[in-house]
Model the fold of this input.
Amino acid sequence: MSFQAANFSQSIRPARCHFGCALRVLFLLLMVSGLVAAEDKLSGAQRQEIIRAFLAEHPFVHRALPRGKAGVHIAEDGKITPSDAELNQLIAQFSPAAKVGERAQITSVHFVHRGIVFDINGGPVKRKKWSDRINVGIDGIDPHAQPQATDDSVYNNSNGSVIFLALKDDVATLTADHVKDLLSPVLDFKAMNISEAYQKSLPPVLAAAIKNHHALVGMDRDMVTYTMGRPPRKVRESQDGQDYEEWIYGAPPQDVEFIRFVGDKVVRIEQMKVTGEKLVRTQNEVGDLNGALETSANDASSHKQTRPNSIAAPADDERRSAPTLLRPGEKSGSAGDATRDPNPNPPPDISTPPPSSPNPSGPN
Done:
């Protein structure tokens, strides 16, 4: 029996050795793969910085956001999808979650594989409360029972949208400011008011017209509103079988301006001067509005989507002075001890009261 036990133990040792070696090799492979994958992922500090910088932020919208899960996708090269034509179809079908120039709220930030997801105005979906999915009845029969809940009934239609930002492989130097630059074609974090944010999203011709409060033939209703403000009067009429709407600005004895819309576009602008002069403009002064807006968005994307590989050190004049305990006139010595300036500012003499203070001893 002892001889057989010895042979059995000797046969088990090589198997244990091979098994242990296989485990060591597998462990090393997992460590190497984990280190390689860690280089392509955001660190915990980076994620906390992004969440703190963006959560509950209220940026201005540069590009309209449709409701629902479609949202807006920003690729690694800065290309934005859907296109303007597809975006208009989505907005016409689902209505906008945020229009150009409006403030939007970032309500949630999710980190996914090779990207970051930003929920806008509550996100694309909104789940019903647990109390809305519970039925209570007597003897197992609920007189008010509803059909079995499905995905469509469990999720309510939300008023929000979503933005997906694709990230490159090198994310070691990514900061919250870089993420804002990548989102700048869609969201504006630097504008001070709605008018400024809206002007940044337009071509130079339209931006200058809005700034100068000069309406142009070819503008849409939102552009005229940002240019001239809300109209005091609106008139709806029909001419030659075509319905139109006129916005009237001003009243005699001042200049009066009539802006005529057919659909959503300005087709005629008539100005009545105080002198009795009448000016009528019907020629399109904007050109292809959709093409101009798409070109402006592409230019903004190409100029703002570049991200430096490393964080540049601030210049000497941009560095803030570090806090110090040295008094005025003292300089830090080479050994870390403070050495006094040969001509320091003398401290005020507190023994002598100021001239305006009364004599503490009273009149003699």
